[in-house]
Design brief:
By secondary structure, the chain is an alpha+beta fold. The longest helix has 16 residues.
């Protein structure tokens, strides 16, 4: 059967009429910003404090668009007689986004969480050389990185937190609690034997009706008796002695 002349035009106009009656869903960018998912791969941010210059991100990058320069510094010994240590200091960290393919390998292989995805995508430039972001620019992108999603309430506790909690509980059980010599752990009571209420937080004051009575005053220790010392006999003087009854 031969097609009816003008049927194609009629079908096209029917599609146009159906579209005209529907509500528009087009977002008027840039007047209306798009609502992007939190894991959008927009730009890479650098958290410089976590970077140890291990070079894993630069070696694993398929496009070789990460440039890192560093030098070593000697750290003095922390204790007397200790050994000096050397550490790597970051001099340059740059990413050329004109070469980046946004694969995310550099973020996955970083062992110290120094690289993060940011959903920002508005960093187009008129000069291709401006697409190489140095570490100062990469640090600014860190302020646009969204917070990590909350953990599932039914998920297991992280191993690090569980280990720290067990260690704290073990120390709390093994450490002896000091005994209170004043007996402040006992429940305070009022003058009539009732519990101290909010109007008397310090408990009853000691007085003449206190059952414990006045405390005895400390007495000085008595002197320890000493044994009489025996004097050695004196030797008689040499020479003749006069009789007792005769006077000289």
């Amino acid at each position: 059967m031969a097609p009816i002349p003008g049927s194609g035009l009629a079908k096209g106009l029917a599609v146009t009429l159906r579209t005209m009656t529907k509500k528009t869903v087009t977002e008027q960018y840039p007047d209306t910003q798009p609502d992007l998912p939190p894991r959008t791969r927009g730009v890479i941010g650098l958290f410089e404090e976590n970077c140890t210059v291990c070079m894993l991100c630069a070696r694993e990058c398929p496009d070789w668009c990460i440039y890192i320069d560093s030098h070593k510094e000697t750290v003095p010994a922390a204790t007397p007689g200790g050994r000096e240590r050397s550490r790597n200091v970051l001099d340059r960290f740059a990413i050329d986004f004109s070469l980046c393919m946004y694969c995310g390998i550099c973020i996955e292989v970083c062992p110290f969480d120094a690289l993060f995805w940011s959903p920002e995508f508005e960093y187009a430039e008129t000069d291709i050389r401006d697409l190489t972001h140095e570490r100062d620019k990469l640090r600014e992108w860190m302020w646009t990185v969204p917070a990590p999603p909350a953990l599932d309430p039914g998920a297991e506790e992280p191993k690090e937190i569980a280990a720290a909690r067990k260690t704290a509980e073990k120390l709390a059980t093994t450490q002896p609690t000091p005994a209170d010599p004043t007996g402040s752990n006992a429940e305070p009571t009022g003058p009539a034997g009732s519990k101290a209420g909010p109007t008397d937080p310090a408990g009853p004051k000691p007085g003449p009706t206190d059952q414990a009575g006045p405390k005895p005053e400390p007495t000085e220790p008595r002197p320890r008796p000493t044994e009489p010392r025996t004097q050695p006999p004196t030797e008689p003087p040499a020479g003749p002695t006069a009789p007792e009854g005769d006077a000289p």
